[in-house]
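G., the chain you wanted modeled:
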Amino acid sequence: MRIAAGIVLAFSLIAVARSQTGPVSNGLSEYEDANFKVALPLLRAAAAADPKNASVRAALLSSLTYEGLVDEAADAFDAAATDFPNSPEVLTARGEFTYYMGDVYLANQLFNRSVKIAETARAVFALSEMLRASSNYRTARLLTMRAHELDPKDALITRAWIPSLIPEKRREVFGPFRAAHPWLYEHYATQSATSSQVAAGVNKRKAFELDGGLQETTLHLVPLMYTATKIRGLGLEFTIENGKRLVLLFDTGASGIMVNQKAVDKVGLSHLGTIEGRGIGDKGPRNGFVSVADTCKISTLTYKTCVMRVFEGKHPAGDEDGLIGADFFSRYVVQIDFQRRLLHLTPQPAREPSAQGYNRAPLPDEKDFTPIFRYGHQLMVPTRLNGKTWGLFLIDTGSSMSIVDSTFARLSTKVYANSYMRVRGLSGEVNKVFEADRAQLEFATFRQQNVGITSVNLNNSPEHVPVRMSGVFGFPLLDLFRLTIDYRNGLVKFDYVKK
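Predicted structure as tokens:
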């Protein structure tokens, strides 16, 4: 009797404990809050306990994708495709993983299949993100608003929806939302403080106000050499406050203007805020600050109120004085003539104001242009490797070589370690360098056969990125073309030039 009483008491205590703590979450609410790190262990447990729950399995795959856990996500992708071939939630999650891996064509098919079965918020939102990246901003905005209407509790959708509000409403909504979802704004305080300091430095002046306004112009590009015969890239002459002549590497893979600390300190500019920069390399982010000059000159163009990023230490961008991103000229159609070493800038035509934003406007000769995906300053071209796998390759005139991501390369070819090759970027030297056995690259209307192309991990950032970089088209490949970039409309033209 005493034993039985003890058992009853033990079960009673367990029942009380459960009633006090509540039922264990299956992770779906944490997933909807976009708190993926917390959601993942709960979703793993829930999927193991109830493998027939399509919502849990879809949320698990989506969370794994967001956290960049590629191997586990690939296994979850295959299993979910087998178990739930027609579930709209699973189709959307599969599309998210496929999109993250760079296969934009398959991702688009999966998202549209999902929407045809049922108009879910996540599928509509996923399509809006793809449209935004392809420069169809008006339709993307409308779809984001529709996704929020379908599920106003989804935190990822709400974060994208807030910028579409009028300023007064945006200020009203943003503060409480950020406070309730701090994991989505981990670097907000530092960025906000730096922005405030930069704003004080600019002092209500217009940044980079161009003397004479936008006009069609041609600038001379300066060859940057490895040796007397080997060119590393092309640069633009740059001066700060009429100081020493610098040469900035002209880089389609970078953004804005970045100069070395020695140059800004020599003319006595202030150090404003703190910033971090990441690039190729395994040494982590580079620390830096922002400086504002009253005047600067880029080749023959003179600007007032020049805002520059500055990274601490020597040679932040290699052996150059700094970098200038091609997106600095995004108000122009940019033509890079590598052979003649000319940069031709044609101002974009004016267009009627639109509160809804704009979609990509096709040019008269659009058939000669390749639609690209744009993520901030990064211009990505859909590219097929060895006739099998699709990915997104970065157009990067600042890279001294073309590179294939090691994970992407392994999908269609053998990869070997190469202990002799050295690869270095903004984040220092790469620890592990590989060589892809065979790489036939197909992009736009071109095909290039490579034997022994360099392969490294291009996706080592701990922060979430919308898509993985599958590879880099570097200067030696781009030097074969006359390149025309239309930033406004997300188009690039590759004109092959016979040498």
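Residues 222 and 235 are 5 Å apart (CA to CA).

Shout if anything looks off.
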